[in-house]
């Protein structure tokens, strides 16, 4: 019984938070995330952003202009310019988003990292929720 209780805790906690959110209208921290994806140039960034949107893996994608990047690659210090995508989505979609982007991205190891959204404009967060279909 103790083991079953421990195994069920995350599921029960999640359901309790969702119920609390539905009743009170409060936001559950971490329900949505921002993913950062680097791209070689603006055209690749636009193509990946459009593909993400076409698959309904995000509600919104910002394409930030070129920035200088310094990094180690295969033991050497490299310098290049990159374009950054900021992808707003459900946290539950991050794995699918990451898998999809890796399948279409030209980089051998693309940067795809995410951070949970702790708080924000409730109307904007609700819009993300409505724009990205559930799993």
Automatic annotation (TrEMBL):
Keyword field contains Nucleotide-binding: no
Domain of life the protein comes from: Eukaryota
Signal peptide positions (record): 1-16
GO BP annotations, alphabetical order: response to metal ion
Keyword annotations of the record: Signal
Molecular-function GO term, any one: copper ion binding
UniProt record similarity statement: Belongs to the CutA family.
Subunit and interaction comment: Homotrimer.
Protein name, entry field: CUTA protein
UniProt organism field: Cochlearius cochlearius (Boat-billed heron)
Upper lineage: Eukaryota, Metazoa, Chordata, Craniata, Vertebrata
